[in-house]
UniProtKB/TrEMBL annotation:
<keyword id="KW-1133">Transmembrane helix</keyword>
<protein>
    <submittedName>
        <fullName>Chromate efflux transporter</fullName>
    </submittedName>
</protein>
<dbReference type="InterPro" id="IPR003370">
    <property type="entry name" value="Chromate_transpt"/>
</dbReference>
<feature type="transmembrane region" description="Helical">
    <location>
        <begin position="288"/>
        <end position="310"/>
    </location>
</feature>
<comment type="similarity">
    <text>Belongs to the chromate ion transporter (CHR) (TC 2.A.51) family.</text>
</comment>
<feature type="transmembrane region" description="Helical">
    <location>
        <begin position="211"/>
        <end position="240"/>
    </location>
</feature>
<feature type="transmembrane region" description="Helical">
    <location>
        <begin position="159"/>
        <end position="191"/>
    </location>
</feature>
<dbReference type="InterPro" id="IPR052518">
    <property type="entry name" value="CHR_Transporter"/>
</dbReference>
<dbReference type="InterPro" id="IPR014047">
    <property type="entry name" value="Chr_Tranpt_l_chain"/>
</dbReference>
<feature type="transmembrane region" description="Helical">
    <location>
        <begin position="348"/>
        <end position="364"/>
    </location>
</feature>
<feature type="transmembrane region" description="Helical">
    <location>
        <begin position="113"/>
        <end position="138"/>
    </location>
</feature>
<feature type="transmembrane region" description="Helical">
    <location>
        <begin position="322"/>
        <end position="342"/>
    </location>
</feature>
<feature type="transmembrane region" description="Helical">
    <location>
        <begin position="83"/>
        <end position="107"/>
    </location>
</feature>
<feature type="transmembrane region" description="Helical">
    <location>
        <begin position="371"/>
        <end position="388"/>
    </location>
</feature>
<keyword id="KW-0472">Membrane</keyword>
<keyword id="KW-1003">Cell membrane</keyword>
<keyword id="KW-0812">Transmembrane</keyword>
Length: 389
């Protein structure tokens, strides 16, 4: 690894704070901004090393673009740089989303706010399908590169099986989705390598599978699942959170959960900020900060503890096989999450907005943020004209 350039901590704070404030659009935007800063403009990191880091963080559970932001800080100033970069990248969006949560989850919000939230929530299921569709091609190519016929099972058949299992799990057994993702990864290891190697490959990904009940402990465990067990990040956190937040602990209603997902999409910074809205619903500002802290802590640990081992991890056949199997299951889970999200809609006009958002995203190929903002505007206007909410 080349020697890191001398970059001051105030410079890291300033630049990563700027990305945290302007990073609307999710992981693709974050990667572009980090590449422009670290590779193109400042020449702090060489292009091949940056691309390797992108591949490495995608091997980890949790929010990949957040982990990339932390890694870039780690590359420049090791632990101090990682902590500062991650903090500055996360905090702007966190502050904004907590403020918006206070408005959207208020006991008696203005009617226009109710309309805007119902409108934005209407589009969320379409956004989930759009996310799954965007991830599918790379995963499809990956499993085909792994071997056209392994253990007498064609690669395409295995991919479709994993994706189907993920979709069914997200739609039917949300809180147990993690086990299905782990199982799909381990099955792929077993058909490509020795079963013992599958167990060894799985060990770095395992986390305590205990259950927590009641209050802040339950909230912390929900956030932990989001940060430490969500392979693929982004929308795969939805089935992990929805059952806990809506059905088990009743922290929020189905429509409020849709609001949380929409807010996570339209605010800057990582999409995983959605967990802060769930925390706010459960226990106010303190709950939001607790949920965000627990959800993002694994990313700091993974990068700081494992940054120097990224190259070796990328070359490990067991890890590669595990992700080849877990990847399609994640994509299926993201697509499957659209079913409970659509089922949470209450009014016919919301389904019209859902269909319109699907056309906007999947046919016209426009952006997610614009889809959500337009849906929110339509919802607010519709309610002002007398539509039910």
């Amino acid at each position: 690894m080349p020697e890191a350039p001398s970059v001051s901590l105030p410079t890291i704070a300033r630049e990563w704070l700027r990305i945290g404030v302007t990073g609307f659009g999710g992981p693709p935007t974050h990667i572009v901004l980090l590449r422009r800063l670290c590779v193109t403009d400042r020449h702090w990191i060489e292009e091949p090393e940056f691309e390797d880091a992108i591949a490495a963080v995608n091997l980890l559970p949790g929010p990949a673009s957040t982990q990339l932001a932390i890694w870039c800080g780690w590359r420049l100033r090791r632990t101090a740089g990682a902590l500062l970069a991650g903090f500055c990248f996360i905090v702007p969006g966190l502050v904004l989303i907590i403020g918006l949560a206070a408005v959207f989850l208020a006991a008696h919000p203005p009617k226009v706010v109710l309309g805007a939230s119902a409108g934005a929530g209407s589009a969320v299921a379409a956004v989930a399908l759009h996310a799954a569709w965007g991830l599918a091609p790379a995963s499809w190519k990956r499993i085909q590169r792994a071997g056209a016929d392994v253990a007498n099972t064609p690669a395409k058949t295995r991919w479709l099986t994993y994706a189907t299992l993920g979709a069914l799990s997200a739609a039917l057994i949300g809180p147990w989705l993690v086990l299905v993702l782990l199982a799909c990864g381990l099955i792929e290891v077993a058909v490509r390598l020795r079963p013992a190697a599958g167990v060894r490959a799985l060990l770095p990904f395992l986390a305590p599978a205990t259950s927590a009940t009641g209050g802040l402990l339950a909230l912390a465990f929900t956030a932990f699942k989001v940060g430490a067990l969500s392979y693929g990040g982004g929308f795969v956190i939805i089935p992990l959170m929805q059952h806990d937040a809506v059905r088990t602990h009743h922290w929020m209603s189905s429509s409020q959960f849709l609001d949380a997902v929409a807010l996570g999409q339209i605010t800057p910074g990582p999409v995983v900020q959605t967990v802060a809205v769930v925390g706010y619903a459960a226990a106010g500002v303190g709950g939001a900060l607790l949920a965000a802290g627990v959800a993002f802590a694994p990313s700091f640990v993974f990068v700081i503890a494992g940054g120097s081992h990224f190259d070796r991890m990328r070359g490990d056949k067991g890890v590669q096989a595990f992700l080849t199997g877990a990847g399609p299951a994640v994509i299926g889970a993201i697509a499957g999450s659209a079913i409970p999200l659509a089922a949470a809609l209450d009014h016919p006009w919301q389904f019209v907005l859902l269909a319109s958002a699907a056309v906007w995203l999947l046919v016209l190929r426009r952006g997610v943020v614009s889809a959500l903002l337009l849906a929110a505007a339509c919802g607010a206007a519709g309610v002002a004209l007398g539509l039910p909410v």
